[in-house]
C-alpha cells in the first residue's frame, strides 16, 4: 500500500509538471526531488515514532538500534512510523535537495502535496487490512471487531453495556473483544479522498485565480490534514503506553472509550501544531502580495 500511495502521488505530481508551461525541471531533477522526499519521509516517520511514541530514553542511550532491523536475532524491519514525522522528514529532505539544485522548492512541493491525500487513502486501507491503528470501542452499528485489539473483562459494567448494545452473548466473568470504530476507514475517507477533492478541485483553482504565492498549496494541505486528523483522533484509541497528554475531561482513565473532548492525545497536539504552522506559512509566503498590488495601482493612478 505504501508503494501504491507513492505511485499515485508521483503520477499526479508528474501530470502537473507536464501541464506547467513554466516548468524548469528536467525529468531527472523532478524524479530526484520526489525520491528525496520519500527517503526523508521514511526516516522522519521512524525517528518520530521512536522519539515520541516509544521508549525514547532507551533509544537515546542506544542510538545505533534506531535503524537496526533485527530484534532478538529476528528480522523485524523498522516497526513504528509516525505520519507527523514523515511530513517533517519529507519537507526537510526536499528542501535540502532543492537548495542543492537551486530550484524553487515551494513551487514544486505544491505540486506534490496536491496529490498526496489520494495516495494516503491507500496507506490507511493498508492499516485497515492489517487490523492496526484501530479506533475506540463503540456502540455504533458499524463497529468492527479487530482480532489484534485487546479484550476486556465482562466483570466491568461498561463492557457489558457495550456488548449488550451489539447483542453479543457472554458470561461473567469472561474476556470479550468488543466492536470498535474503523478509524482507518474514517481517515482514508476524510484525510484521503475528501482532502484530495478539496485540494485538487477547489484550492488549486483558487491559487491560480487569486495568484497566490508558491507554498500556499502546502499550507492548505498541512492545515486540512491537521484539521481532519484532529477530530478523527477522538474516534481513534491513543497508544496504551502514552494515553492522553492533556486530561481535562471525564473518562480519561479509560482510553478505550470516548469520554470528553477535553481529553487530548499526543497525535492531536501534533495536529494542532500542524494547523498553526500552516496558517503561519500561508501568511509568510503571501505577505507581500497585496502590498505589491497596491503599489502597482498607485503607479497607474499617478
The fraction of residues assigned to DSSP E strands is under 5%
Count of beta strands: 6
The average pLDDT is: 93
Span between termini: 60 Å
Largest sheet: 2 strands, antiparallel
Give unreliable regions as ranges: 291-302
Helix/strand order, N-terminal first: HHHEEHHEHEHHEEHH
Strand line-up across the major sheet? 1-2
Structural class: mainly alpha
> Count of DSSP helices?
10
- Helical content stands at 55-70%
Outline type: globular
Q: Radius of gyration over alpha carbons?
A: 22 Å
Structural key phrases:
single chain, 6 strands, 302 residues, two-stranded antiparallel sheet, mainly alpha
Write a structural description:
The protein is mainly α. The chain has a domain at 137-180. It is 60% helix and 5% strand. It contains 10 helices and 6 strands. It has helices at 2-19, 27-53, 56-61, 83-101, 105-130, 157-165, 183-209, 216-232, 266-285, 289-301; strands at residues 70-71, 74-75, 152-153, 175-176, 244-247, 263-265. The strands form 3 sheets. A two-stranded antiparallel ribbon has the order 1-2. It has a two-stranded antiparallel sheet with strand order 3-4. Helix 1 packs antiparallel against helix 5 (105-130), helix 5 (105-130) runs parallel beside helix 8 and helix 7 (183-209) packs antiparallel against helix 8. It is globular and about 70 Å long. The relative contact order is 0.10. The model is unreliable at 291-302 (pLDDT under 50).
Write the layout of secondary structure elements.
Elements: H1 2-19, H2 27-53, H3 56-61, E1 70-71, E2 74-75, H4 83-101, H5 105-130, E3 152-153, H6 157-165, E4 175-176, H7 183-209, H8 216-232, E5 244-247, E6 263-265, H9 266-285, H10 289-301
Antiparallel strand pairs: 1-2, 3-4, 5-6
Amino acid at each position: 500500500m505504501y508503494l501504491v500511495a507513492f505511485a499515485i502521488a508521483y503520477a499526479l505530481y508528474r501530470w502537473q509538471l507536464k501541464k506547467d508551461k513554466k516548468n524548469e525541471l528536467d525529468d531527472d531533477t523532478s524524479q530526484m526531488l520526489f525520491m528525496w522526499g520519500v527517503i526523508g519521509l521514511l526516516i522522519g516517520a521512524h525517528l518520530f515514532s521512536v522519539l515520541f511514541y516509544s521508549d525514547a530514553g532507551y533509544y537515546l542511550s542506544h542510538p545505533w538500534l534506531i535503524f537496526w532491523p533485527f530484534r532478538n536475532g529476528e528480522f523485524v524491519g523498522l516497526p513504528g512510523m509516525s505520519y507527523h514525522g514523515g511530513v517533517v522528514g519529507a519537507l526537510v529532505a526536499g528542501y535540502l535537495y532543492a537548495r542543492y539544485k537551486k530550484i524553487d522548492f515551494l513551487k514544486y512541493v505544491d505540486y506534490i502535496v496536491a496529490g498526496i491525500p489520494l495516495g494516503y487513502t491507500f496507506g490507511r486501507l493498508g492499516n485497515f487490512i492489517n487490523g492496526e491503528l484501530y479506533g475506540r470501542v463503540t456502540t455504533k452499528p458499524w463497529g468492527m471487531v479487530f482480532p489484534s485489539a485487546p479484550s476486556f473483562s465482562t466483570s466491568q459494567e461498561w463492557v457489558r453495556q457495550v456488548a449488550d448494545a451489539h447483542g453479543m452473548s457472554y458470561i461473567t466473568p469472561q474476556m470479550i473483544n468488543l466492536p470498535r470504530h474503523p478509524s482507518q476507514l474514517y481517515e482514508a475517507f476524510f484525510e484521503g479522498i475528501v482532502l484530495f477533492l478539496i485540494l485538487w478541485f477547489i484550492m488549486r483553482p483558487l491559487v491560480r485565480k487569486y495568484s497566490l504565492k508558491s507554498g500556499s498549496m502546502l499550507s492548505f494541505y498541512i492545515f486540512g490534514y491537521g484539521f481532519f486528523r484532529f477530530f478523527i483522533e477522538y474516534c481513534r484509541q491513543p497508544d496504551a503506553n502514552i494515553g492522553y497528554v492533556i486530561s481535562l475531561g471525564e473518562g480519561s482513565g479509560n482510553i478505550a472509550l470516548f469520554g470528553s473532548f477535553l481529553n487530548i492525545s499526543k497525535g492531536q497536539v501534533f495536529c494542532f501544531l500542524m494547523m498553526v504552522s500552516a496558517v503561519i506559512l500561508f501568511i509568510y509566503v503571501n505577505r507581500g502580495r497585496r502590498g505589491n498590488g497596491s503599489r502597482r495601482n498607485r503607479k497607474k493612478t499617478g
